[in-house]
Design brief:
alpha/beta, Rossmann fold, 2 domains, 4-stranded parallel beta sheet, 16 helices, 11 strands, elongated
């Protein structure tokens, strides 16, 4: 029987999913392997009737440059009981599978490592190689190398935010933009910098003070008041969704925002628009301080995940896929593919990246680095002590909206 590999995709989509999967297929097909695609992410490995299909050259060639994911994805995370009772070892044995290629974020990578250990214990010789993706850019790759999908998502997010900014300028309003990024603010900061947004709020900003809803609101107002002083009656505020996930749930409840709660009493923020949430809170604050500002909420998230990848990701994902073959040929396993600036593929071993609990810690924005600091210093608009006297004509307490005081910078 011909040697085979099997590919699955976990988590949520990112631009370049098809580029990776179909480039892996093309590379292994050209080297004599059978390529099996597994639908349903990890759920397929714990099913007696997994949905699989062979990927040939024509299928790979038709889909490699498209957005979305030809292989259906899922966020299924197997339990210890699943491993004991439901793991479909026969899928590997019956198809002579030599390599499991997983495409996904940190959860997908961690599960891949668990599967590798399980198969090793069963004395079944299968390699596993993970290809890291996330539009959040929060996997800890060396040399600040991006995860695939991030640049395409940032490109489309910036396109949307540029359009929104022009709407704000044209209509004389403020648009409140929420950008995806639960653990880190890379996408929000990238969009904010690319569009010269006067204020971007990310969780990493609160490195010297505790995050609170009041501080988030005051940062937005700092930009709005400063622009009023400059005679600019419009703008955008980009907020990373992660700032709301870091808040005390009671704060959001106290703000009067209507939402559902899970069985532990935590707000189900994933079900609501963070842009709408923040816009509602801002409007209440405007009324409280007597500020006449019209705002509108805009969400950037699901609309950037399945777009066609830009040339950067088409190239990068192809290199990652070919790198997976090169590492496999060298006998590597239990690793993520890392491609350096010169296109050289290197292994990043999952065991070295994981914490004691098995999770891979997220890579957060280097808030003290040049990218963040130069953006805040030179592009953003906010209140400073030099503005206090003029700002008293707008608000009674301008020092409360001093950007650096709010953050204790």
């Amino acid at each position: 029987m011909k040697d085979s590999i099997i590919i699955l995709c976990g988590g949520g989509p990112a631009p370049g999913m098809n580029t990776v999967v179909m480039s892996v297929a093309k590379t292994f097909l050209s080297n004599g392997y059978r390529v099996i695609g597994l639908h349903g992410g990890y759920s397929g490995l714990f099913s007696k009737t997994p949905r699989t299909e062979d990927i040939d050259f024509f299928k790979a060639d038709a889909y490699f440059n498209r957005g979305g994911s030809y292989l259906q994805m899922s966020r299924f995370k197997p339990t210890d009981k699943d491993f004991e009772e439901n793991f479909n070892l026969g899928l590997f044995q019956d198809n002579n599978i030599k390599l499991l290629v997983t495409v996904g974020g940190d959860d997908t990578a961690s599960t891949a490592n668990r599967i590798a250990k399980f198969l090793e214990a069963k004395q079944y010789p299968i390699h596993n190689i993970h290809i890291p993706k996330t539009i959040d850019n929060d996997l800890p790759l060396p040399q600040n190398t991006p995860t695939f999908g991030f640049n395409s998502a940032k490109n489309e997010g910036a396109h949307l935010a540029r359009t929104v900014y022009e709407d704000a300028r044209t209509s004389g309003n403020w648009l409140i933009i929420s950008a995806m990024g639960r653990s880190a603010g890379h996408l929000a900061l990238g969009i904010g910098e690319a569009t010269h947004c006067p204020m971007t709020i990310i969780p990493e900003m609160f490195n010297k003070t505790e995050i609170s809803l009041d501080k988030i609101v005051k940062l937005a107002l700092s930009a709005i008041i400063k622009r009023k002083l400059l005679g600019i009656g419009y703008g955008t505020v980009v907020v990373a969704e992660g700032v709301f996930h870091d808040l005390d749930p009671q704060e959001i409840k106290n703000a009067g925002v209507s939402m559902t709660y899970d069985e532990h009493g935590h707000p189900e923020l994933g079900k609501i628009s963070k842009a709408v949430l923040f816009n509602d809170i801002l409007e209440k604050e405007f009324k409280k301080i007597g500020l006449k500002v019209k705002t509108r909420p805009v969400e950037i998230g699901y609309d950037v995940r399945c777009q066609d990848p830009i040339a950067y990701d088409l190239t990068y994902c192809s290199e990652l896929a070919m790198g997976a073959y090169e590492l496999f040929k060298k006998g590597e396993t239990g690793c993520m593919v890392y491609v350096d600036a010169f296109g050289e593929a290197k292994p990043l071993y999952l065991k070295d990246l994981q914490q004691a609990d098995g999770k891979i810690p997220p890579r957060r924005v280097a808030i003290d680095g040049g990218t963040a600091q130069n953006y805040f210093e030179h592009i953003c608009h906010f209140i400073t002590p030099a503005d206090y006297e003029a700002a008293r004509k707008i608000v009674a307490n301008p020092e409360d909206y001093d950007f650096k005081k709010i953050l204790n910078w």
